[in-house]
Amino acid sequence: MKHIDPSELSSRERYRLMISSIIPRPIALVTSIGKNGVVNAAPFSYFNGVTSSPPIISISVGYRKGTAKDTGRNIRETGEFVVNIVSQDIAEKMNIASGDYPPEISEITEANLNVIPSELVSPPRLAESPIQMECKLYKLIEIGEGPNDLILGEVMRWHLNTDVKIDDRYHIDPASLDVIGRLGGPQYCTTNDVFEMVRPKVGG
Ligand SMILES: Cc1cc2nc3c(=O)[nH]c(=O)nc-3n(C[C@H](O)[C@H](O)[C@H](O)COP(=O)(O)O)c2cc1C
To answer: Within a domain: residue 87?
Structure first.
């Protein structure tokens, strides 16, 4: 058995341990827009749902050499963003969008993505993403060294592409999404191997 004290590791080692222990992680391909009007797209896998009423999601956006990443800066400036869910067929475009482009370069052009206007927020959504969630900033909390911006966003509008199957109880069929998850390093997984378990009924 191995025991690891994270305080004895370098920040890079702690990062590797975190992202290879907590797997698979969902990926938010976040669109945001800067004061310069450039539409930005970047993936974040420190991403999850936090609560449902109201519907709040979290993303954690790091800093690059002491400067906020474009996504963090844009969300601080405008309080608006869109979470676009990543399916297998846009995996490569998502990866291209993760490149370290300067603020004046749009990942939309670099990754050859297509945008559609949002209804309630200024950043557009991605046409090729199966689910697009328009979000308004709920709270931003600076955490840790770096620091990281823990961004809590309230989902104001859901958009489901026509191929996405949803039943009348608002349950989406995962097979109709074909999303990918991030593992440690450059590894990803698919959601092709789904199994079911019904929760036990305890008591009455
Ligand atoms: C699958 C994937 C997940 C990522 N997750 C995060 C994350 O959770 N937080 C983060 O700060 N960077 C993450 N990155 C790196 C950012 O996408 C990258 O730094 C990007 O250039 C940021 O773009 P921006 O400056 O346009 O916001 C991830 C990259 C990939 C490929």
So the answer is: yes
Any ligand 1 atom below 6 A from CB of 48: no
Q: Is 130 helix (H, G, I), strand (E, B) or coil?
A: coil
106 lines ligand 1 (CB under 6 A): no
**pLDDT per position as a tens digit, 94-124:** 999 999 999 899 999 999 999 999 999 999 9
Place of tokens 């809590």: 152
Query: Strand 28-33's sheet: what is its strand order?
Result: 39-44, 28-33, 80-85, 131-143, 148-160, 56-61, 47-51
pTM: 0.97
CATH of the domain at 164: 2.30.110.10
Q: What percent of the chain has pLDDT over 70?
A: 100
Q: Which atom of ligand 1 is nearest to the CA of 148?
A: 11
Atom of ligand 1 nearest to the CA of 47: 8
**Residue 49: predicted pLDDT:** 98
DSSP state for residue 25 in the 8-state scheme: B
Total tally of structural domains belonging to the chain: 1
Residue 164 covered by a domain: yes
**Ligand 1 in reach of 58 Cβ (< 6 A):** no
